[in-house]
Amino acid sequence: MSEKVIEVVESSGVVRLTISRPKALNALNSAVLTELERLLCELEQRNDLRAVLITGAGEKSFVAGADITEMKDKTPEEARAFASQALRTIKRLETLPVPVVALVNGFCLGGGCELALACDWAVASDNAVFGQPEVLLGVIPGFGGTQRLPRRVGPAMALDLVTTGRKIDAQEALRIGLVNRVMPQAELEAYADELTKQLAGNGPQAVRASKQAVHDGMEQELDSALALETALFAFCFAGEEQKEGMSAFVEKRKPNF
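Given the sequence above, the corresponding structure tokens read:
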């Protein structure tokens, strides 16, 4: 039987994907990328999907990077194909219509950091370590790091990290805006459970519209982006979700979405 490289757990429409190669510190290889893309293709089609959480197995690593053993003997053409596969897969994660959250425990380096950057936000345990150390291997980030990192933390900080290859701890990652929150590792699981309940309890159409407004609006001029927000706001009034949510507020009860 082949190794199961991604574990899938679901609760109330919130799907948790756990990359499971703990002996390799959950490094991304072709098998992981192929399975992740397959799963994401399935999730794209689901109207009942509320959110996706992604993490790594074990306490040592979220994803320690791309698999160096697999990469070291690649030709330029093979390297291009490998990077293209990774970019395609990570883009699918980024463009899911629901919130995607990285739960970062331990090493989040290279391809792991690039995976986290494609998520809507990231939460880190206090033992997390971040970095883009590719230059130490004689290459550059190839899974989107040179583009998503400056968009997240600014070009000066991105160049600092990419050209030195230095690693930063969770608190510095929080300071520069790479992650949203830092907590003790022992609390990360409880946070994931609470986040699952919170995301599952919100209006699903409103959550999707919120993500669309932010992502699509960032690519437009302000006036066009505000027009998009107005259109999506009005769209929320076209279904039963808004009626239930506002009726529940007036009636002082929890909405049933």
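The chain has a mean pLDDT of 96. Try to locate this feature in the token string yourself.
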